[in-house]
Write a structure and sequence with these properties.
Belongs to the BolA/IbaG family. Pfam families: BolA (PF01722). This is BolA protein. This protein has 90 residues and is an alpha+beta fold. Helix content is 33%, strand content 22%. It has helices at 3-15, 57-67, 69-74, and strands at 19-24, 42-48, 78-84.
């Protein structure tokens, strides 16, 4: 399974998001540190979930990083995360 699909599946299962965008930005980082042939090393993720309500920005990001710890340990070199509650996404 592609890493983008793994990321999408794990975040969907754990956070039941109202909105989730997983953008593979690896092509823009070709030749840079952490880039690998075949891509799937650099991602930008935007998640809108009520699970984030009452949590600080840091706590939200830690939650996402914890959910994706296997992917980060295996292949994903860089992960940019934007976390919003449904109220913030309006």
């Amino acid at each position: 399974m592609r890493y983008a699909d793994r990321i999408h599946t794990k975040l969907t299962q754990a956070l039941a998001p109202e909105s989730l965008i997983v953008d593979d930005q690896s092509a823009a980082h070709a030749g840079h540190g952490g880039a690998a042939p075949g891509g799937e090393t650099h991602f930008e993720v935007t998640v809108v979930s009520s699970v984030f309500t009452g949590k600080s920005r840091v706590a939200r990001q830690r939650l996402v990083y914890d959910i994706l710890k296997d992917e980060l340990a295996e292949r994903v070199h860089a992960l940019s995360v934007k976390t919003l509650t449904p109220e913030e996404a309006v």
